[in-house]
Amino acid sequence: MAGTQVNPTRMELTRLKKKLVTAVRGHKLLKDKRDELMRQFLDRVRENKALREEVEAALVAANADFMLARAGMPDEMMNTALLAPKQEVSISAGTQNVMSVEIPDFDFKTRTPDPNDIYSYGYAFTTGDLDDAIRSLSDVFPKMLKLAEVEKSCQLMAAEIEKTRRRVNALEHVMIPELQENIKYITMKLDENERSTQIRLMKVKDMMLQEAHHYETI
Amino acid sequence: MYRAAVIGDRDSIYGFAALGLDVFPIDDTETGSQTLRRLAEGEYAVIYITEALAAALERELNHYRLLPLPAIIPIPGITGNTGMGIRMVRKSVEQAVGSDIIFNEKD
User: Fold this and answer.
1) Residue A152 in contact with partner chain B when CB distance is under 8 A
2) Domain span at residue A138?
3) Could you tell me the sign of the dihedral formed by the alpha carbons of A51, A54, A56, A59, in that order?
4) B88 contact residues in A (CB cutoff 8 A)
5) Across chain A, what does the average pLDDT equal?
6) pLDDT band, residue A216 (cuts 50/70/90)
7) I need a labelling partner for B67 at 20 to 30 A (CA). Which of A16, A60, B39, B60 fits?
């Protein structure tokens, strides 16, 4: 009500009542959406946390392996060994719809099916440590991709939850009370008008009666 | 078909080349942000970025947070785990829930 001017007419009243019904229904729907999104988000974010801890630990270990490998052989050998990779990874990104949030769904394919193609060098000039290091990195990659999927989903869902929460709050604390207030105001105003018409008619009737029959009125 | 990229300092990322990921060694922040933008607009669905570089490019990362693709994921580099990746997850929780309810048991 505050600050807004409403026409106290029946037409406006009908309009506002319709609007209130829509707002209440929208509020209920959005609240349901928010609750469901939140439930799914919490599941995913817990998974995200677990995966991230796992991947980070594995990567730190893999980095340590690489350090070891570098220590054991000359830099040029290392560079040559990794200069021309045999394997190639391509990613297919589908989408999955969770409560109207499009979250990604990654899957990866390697160019060749042979898992040993990650070793892009002859074994003559490299140490076994390098093989170990590459192996450890390769083992963690599927988890890294899963992490990418889950983490992106969490980011997108978090943004959507925030948006939905704002909408729910706006409806609950601004829109709906305002509409109710306006409807109350119009109803009161219309009732008041009706009473005043009634009184006026009674008054006029009294005046006419007095004029015709000289009745005493109170 | 999309591809996956890894960017960061050379020592942290060169191993990924053997797996068949595209690696982009970056030394300074300026080229880092240019490369990130180029990759994000290209055919890359997943971009792994070392935490050290991610910390410097936080503004760019926030920009890509809301886009469906690419997913930009911080990973620990050779200098060790700075906790930046977990911080990003925590940020999502705070954004969604309003306060951190997943990670607070640790603090």
Assistant:
1) yes
2) 10-81+126-206
3) negative
4) 151
5) 87
6) low
7) A60
**What CATH number has the domain bearing residue A174?**
1.10.287.3240
| CATH superfamily for domain B3-79 | ATPase, V1 complex, subunit F (3.40.50.10580)
Model confidence, pTM: 0.84
Phi, psi of A112 (to 5 degrees): -115, 145
Q: Which amino acid is at B85?
A: G
Chain B neighbours among A 8-67 (CB < 8 Å)? 38, 41-42, 45-46, 48-49, 52-53, 55-56, 59-60, 62-63, 66-67
Q: Is residue A141 part of a domain?
A: yes
Tens-level pLDDT at each residue, chain B (107 residues): 888 899 988 888 888 888 888 889 888 888 888 888 888 888 888 999 998 888 888 888 888 888 888 899 999 888 877 888 888 888 888 888 888 777 765 54
Asked if the Cβ–Cβ distance from B92 to A154 is below 8 Å, we say yes
Total domain count, chain A: 1
Residue A217 contacts residue A206 (beta carbons within 8 Å): yes
A87 contacts: CB under 8 Å, gap ≥ 6: A110, A111, A112, A117, A118, A120, B18, B19, B20
- pLDDT at residue A85 above 80? no
| pLDDT band, very low/low/confident/very high, at A161 (cuts 50, 70, 90) | very high
Q: Is residue A217 part of a domain?
A: no
Question: What is the rounded CA–CA span in Å between residue B78 and residue A83?
Answer: 20
Inter-chain residue contact A159 with B14, CB threshold 8 Å:
no
Per residue in A51-80, pLDDT (tens digit) is 999 999 998 888 888 888 888 888 777 777
The answer, yes or no, to whether ipTM is higher than 0.90 is no
List beta partners, residue B46. B4, B71
Q: Is residue A45 part of a domain?
A: yes
Give the type of residue at A119: Y
Q: Which residues of B lie closer than 8 Å to A, measured between beta carbons?
A: 1-4, 12, 14-21, 45-46, 48, 65-66, 68-69, 71, 73, 75-78, 80-81, 85-86, 88-89, 92-93, 95-98, 102-103
Domain boundaries, chain B: 3-79
